[in-house]
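Give me the fold.
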Amino acid sequence: MIPKQLQPLFTASAIVMGSLLAINITSTITLGALRFVGERRQRKVALPCAACRGKGFYVCKLCKGNSTIPWPLYDPVAVDRCLCPTCDGKRVQRCLNCIGKGYA
């Protein structure tokens, strides 16, 4: 139970916190919508990225699309291969110039 003297204080703080939460949610949704509209408009008029030719991805430069690289430690008995740490075996990596968007 809340003491009688503190009930108005708790009510006022609950109203303030609720209104701050509502303002935060509203502004987050509005900013997300504005960002989406701006991104869409930019995609229409922007030139394709020169590095990836507008695809957003290109062949991994470390493994050259093989998904594995030679074992970095010297072992004369066996030549093992390990998974490429740059692309995680996917053979492509996201373009660092356009961050995978396809346009610069």
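The beta strands are 57-59, 68-70, 81-83, 92-94.
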